[in-house]
Write a structure and sequence with these properties.
The complex is a heterodimer of chains A (about 375) and B (about 230). Chain A is α+β, with helices and mostly antiparallel strands. In chain A, about 50% of the residues lie in helices and about 15% in strands. Chain B has about 230 residues and is mainly beta. The chains are: A alpha+beta (about 375), B mainly beta (about 230).
């Protein structure tokens, strides 16, 4: 913008070479005076001026003479408001209309932009889901031997965070719980193996293929063997639903989908070891946790155990989480406890009355041994 | 600076005469031949400063090169011959006011006083115009040399004008274009092979190219034999 009411712009006229020239415009009393860089002068009275918006930016103001023999244009944002005030408001109505049009056009443009972005996001999401679906289906088609290979390698590369427990009381208690659950696992032929680790962590996790790690901290925190059965059923479901492999495949993304379709699983194994080393292999999303809860409820009911025991364990974690040492491990890897409890109880109710066959384990003894594995006085089961 | 464009339209070259101290700024790799008393300076900024790293990045996203070559004559009557990468035409546009919007890769050379920048044309145009997401914006005063794939034809638009996607070379800032259907029916537009078109409105110069590289590639691709080994 020039000083006062002068603006830099241009003009179209048959009288200038090339029919277009840059010009300096001044808003006078009766009209717009334009002077080209070559010194040619033009004048357009306000009374004859027809305004229009356009140009590459959409923000250029055009002032046309009748029959369009002269057109002045300017992209300065201050030009349009100045035109509204110039010449005792002769162009005020046109300026007002154009301003409204500009606002409307901006809104429409913004709306189109947002819609366009939304479409791009939706297409991207669709493609992502499509590949996720391809990946999931490819995982389902893989033999269990792949899960076992991945699980074994992951187990070897992971830090167990404590010594393995051989206390016969604990080993036999866990074996009894597992023997009740195994016949009802969703996938036949999967070799479940539980490793009890002496650590205060209130946690358990399952690697692909059925390698389960159970910490003594969880055995201490659980109030009954049914609650431990609920947790182990949940972890077994992660294996039978092949959540670990799907987690790895998702980390590989599109490449995994293509490789799996081609039958190449070497990438899966490499990523499994990488994820296991960073403690990410046993982290599952909300969808996978819910699916495992649902499967655990089914397995518990089939095994003659009250499925609500899993929800009861969640209550302990939720209420006493702050007081139970190491509970944060379970809470961090198993979020949304309140909603999940509600869902487990609702699904249990739908199953109706179950003929329950509670465990005949001495749980107080198990708890004592969990506090000091191999050292408790009543070490005999 | 005197510019002569020869061998039009299929194998055009720009023969530029420079007097001592005069400079021409051009796309990296555009020089075909030159006199011995020309020195070249490569930078991301325009000659004499201005722009720099950010401008270089903008040019890069618009399909041009990060760097610019500035050829300066050290003696009288020096000559440089410039040409585009693909077979095609060269057009000269005299920029006196406002700016010229150029599709990515069609800017070939310009006076050192011309600022080369990038501008975003909006998501819709980016997706459907058949051109780059970002366009080159030339502003200042001086000559701009435009290159194309195939022949360039110049249109003086006054009102509305339609160009097929992928055929725009450059247009003046007083023109505006929107994506539109080639015919009233969207299905008819696609069945007729035209699909979407660019509908220009306003008044100003528009430069179009007779061919576009993607169509040429699509036609040529199936005829090429697979590379062995």
């Amino acid at each position: 913008m020039m000083s006062g009411s002068s603006f830099q712009g241009g003009l179209f006229s048959d009288e200038v070479p090339g029919k277009r020239a840059g010009a300096t415009m001044r808003l006078g009393v009766n009209g717009i005076d334009a002077e080209t860089q070559d010194g040619q002068s033009f004048s357009l009275p306000y009374a004859q001026c027809r305004l229009e918006m356009g140009g590459a930016s959409g923000r250029m103001v055009f002032c046309h003479s009748p029959h369009r023999t002269l057109t002045l244009f300017c992209e300065d944002p201050a030009f349009l408001p100045a035109l509204g005030e110039a010449g005792r408001g002769q162009l005020a109505e046109q300026v007002s209309q154009l301003t409204q049009e500009v606002r409307r056009a901006r809104k429409q443009s913004m709306l189109r932009g947002v819609l366009g972005l939304l479409v791009v996001v939706l297409i991207g999401y669709g493609v992502y889901r499509g590949f996720a679906g391809v990946t999931a289906n490819s995982i389902e088609a893989l033999p269990i031997a792949i899960d076992e290979k991945v699980g074994k390698l992951a187990m070897e590369s992971m830090d167990l965070e404590g010594p393995k427990v051989t206390d016969p009381v604990l080993v036999q208690a866990v074996d009894e719980i597992m023997s009740r659950l195994k016949p009802h696992a969703g996938t036949a032929g999967m070799n479940f193996e539980v490793t009890i680790v002496d650590a205060p962590l209130v946690n358990a996790y399952c690697l692909p293929g059925g390698q389960i790690v159970l910490f003594t901290g969880l055995l201490k925190a659980a109030k009954s063997p049914e609650q431990v059965a609920g947790v182990l059923g949940h972890e077994m479901a992660h294996a039978t639903l092949r959540h670990g492999l799907k987690r790895i495949a998702n980390s590989l993304g599109v490449i995994a989908a293509v490789n799996l379709l081609l039958g190449d699983t070497s990438g899966l194994v490499a990523v499994a070891v990488e994820l296991a080393q960073h403690g990410l292999l046993t982290r599952h999303d909300r969808e996978q946790e819910t699916a495992s809860d649902v499967e655990a409820v089914r397995m518990m009911a089939a095994a003659g155990l009250a499925p609500t025991a899993l929800a009861d364990f969640f209550v302990i974690m939720e209420k006493d989480g702050g007081d139970v040492p190491g509970a944060i491990a379970w809470l961090s890897s198993h979020p949304q406890l309140v909603e999940r409890q509600k869902e487990i109880r609702q699904r249990s109710e739908k199953l109706g009355a179950i003929e329950q066959r509670p465990f005949k384990l001495d749980w107080e003894q198990v708890s004592r041994h969990a506090k000091e594995p191999g050292k408790a006085k009543d070490a005999k089961p | 600076m005197q510019i002569e464009i020869t061998n039009r339209p299929a194998s055009s070259v720009a023969r530029i005469q420079l007097q001592e101290g005069e400079t021409v700024t051009c796309e990296v790799g555009a020089m075909i031949a030159m006199s011995t008393h020309l020195v070249v300076e490569t930078s991301s900024a325009k000659k004499g400063g201005g722009g720099g790293f950010v401008s270089g990045l903008k040019r890069l996203v618009s399909g041009e090169n990060f760097f610019l070559n500035h050829f300066t004559a050290q003696a009288a009557d020096q000559e440089i011959i410039l040409g585009p990468g693909l077979l095609g035409d060269i057009a000269r546009h005299r920029l006196q006011s406002g700016h010229l919007v150029v599709q990515g890769s069609s800017w070939l050379a310009s006076d050192p006083g011309i600022q080369i920048d990038a501008t975003f044309q909006g998501i819709g145009k980016a997706l459907f115009s058949g051109e780059s997401v970002f366009w080159v914006k030339c502003s200042g005063t001086g000559d701009v040399l435009l290159s194309s794939f195939g022949a360039i034809y110049e249109v003086h638009v006054d009102g509305e004008y339609i160009v097929d996607t992928g055929h725009i070379v450059a247009y003046e800032d007083t023109l505006q274009f929107q994506m539109d259907k080639a015919s009233k029916s969207l299905i008819g537009s696609f069945l007729g092979g035209e699909g979407l078109v660019c509908r220009f409105k306003g008044r100003g110069k528009l430069y179009c190219q007779s061919h576009n590289p993607p169509s040429f590639g699509q036609a040529l691709g199936p005829l090429l034999t697979a590379r062995s080994g």
